[in-house]
Amino acid sequence: MAHIRNFGLFAQLKSEVSNHVIRFSSGRVKQSGRGLVFWFALQSASIVEIPMDDREMTLFLRGRSQDFQAVSVQGSIGWHVVDSQRLAERIDFSIDLTTGKPQREPVEAIEARITGIANQALLQVLSEASVQALLDAGPGPLRHTLEEALSDNDSLAEIGIAVVSVRLANLAPSSELERALQTPTFEALQEKADQAMFQRRAFAVEKERAIAENELATKIELARRQKDLIAEEANNALAKAKAEAETSSVEASAEADSIGKLLMAKTEAEAARVAIYRDLPPAMLIGLASQKLAETLETVEHFNVSPDLLAAAIAEFRKPSPRLTR
Fold it and tell me: Which of 56, 208, 220, 313 is deepest in the core (most CB within 10 A)?
């Protein structure tokens, strides 16, 4: 917007570079250009300010397809001024000389014209195809059609306007039709989801079964190993018992053999001793018995000699002693 400073009957205008300013005086162009700064008389001047930057407008259209289904199109259209002189002749861009604001709404008028051209082109395309075909094709064909319609339109070229971009962001049916169209896809996706869930459950059951079988096999293997261990321990205990029995038997046999030999030795010694005593005379035997008895007894209180013993002793003394022979 132009900045105007008033000084009585005269005023100073300062415009921005993005705006084209044309000053008329007495019906003739006095100044024309972008970013101008000049003085003018309030009583005789008429000033037009035209924006030269790119403008963006919103496009929203609701139409019907060939099969009478509601379809909405949403997007945006970019445009700019290519001939400011021609545009100033066709659309009023005059500004208030005291405030610098536009006296009309020229931008809205231009966008209304562009919207009318776009709606006409889009409604024709929508009416020639079914809603399913439109949705399957997407916004691309509509955008191409709209670009051709706006770029080749004479009514825009006549006023010095050119369209620089066309973007369609959304092509959608009515909410009821959209839900109806989404139902088969939703059901198919739900079916796939259910199938995937069933597969996960079946896989989980299979894993649980495999785990249970593995645990059972582990228990069986442990039981078998425990059985083998018990059998091995029994075999070891039996072998140990046999070894101990054999050892005991050998020790008993050795001890018995040793005892037998000892008894035999004692028996032989006793037999030898008996044989020695057998050849001795009775008197000597009596003397040895008395000596043995004396060694055993600590004290002798009484000693009785019978007549028979005394007679036998006297008779023994009377016997002649044997002579020693060489």
Answer: 313
What global pTM score does this model have?
A: 0.56
* Three-class SS state of 76: strand
Q: Which amino acid is at 230?
A: I
Contact 72, 172 (CB under 8 A): yes
Which of 65, 163, 74, 70 has the alpha carbon at shortest distance from 113? Answer: 163
Nearest CA to 124 out of 114, 113, 116 is that of 116
Task: Write phi, then psi, for 209 (nearest 5 degrees).
Answer: -65, -45
**pLDDT, tens only, 87-118:** 998 999 999 988 889 999 999 999 999 999 99
CB 81 within 8 A of CB 52: yes
What is the spatial distance between Cα 166 and Cα 201, in angstroms, rounded to a whole number? 51
Find the DSSP H helices in 103-174.
106-127, 131-137, 139-151, 154-158
Conformational region of residue 190, where left means phi above 0, alpha means psi within -120 to 50, and beta covers everything else: alpha
- Structural tokens at position 295: 């060694």
Beta strands in 120-241 (DSSP E): 161-173
Give, in degrees to the nearest 5, the angle at Cα 168 between 166 and 171: 155
